[in-house]
Amino acid sequence: MDKHTVFMMEALDLARQAMRGGDEPFGALLVKDGKCVATSMNRIKSFTDPTMHAELALISEFCRMNKITDLSEYTLYTSCEPCFMCSGAMVWSTLGTLVFSAGSRDLNYILGEPQVNSSETVFAHSHYQPKVIQHVLHEEGIAILTSYF
To answer: Which bin fits 25, alpha (ψ -120 to 50), beta or left (φ > 0)?
Structure first.
């Protein structure tokens, strides 16, 4: 099993944990040198904070705890392609690589919303673009979103 699959399995498990805890099913983890250094999950409902998306919380908390703002040597795995807000945080933290399962278009389809590719849109209009690897364990990511929404 390749490293992207192994780490994505963990991100999807975090999404399931968030859902079981009453939050929306999104999970993320940060990896450096082949080791997971931080995890997070959606906590919008449990924290009563609309900005507590898994990715934004992960970046914010990790950078604050480690007193860094440059994540260029890190890979962020997330159960679903990040929204506009979280994609912006990836730009400003100069994230090295983003790996996601379900795409924002998949989520938009499930929710009956307009088809928008959030991270691609943000990255295309920004001064910095992380490397992007998409649709790792794609069907599993879609299944988790479908079971919730």
So the answer is: beta
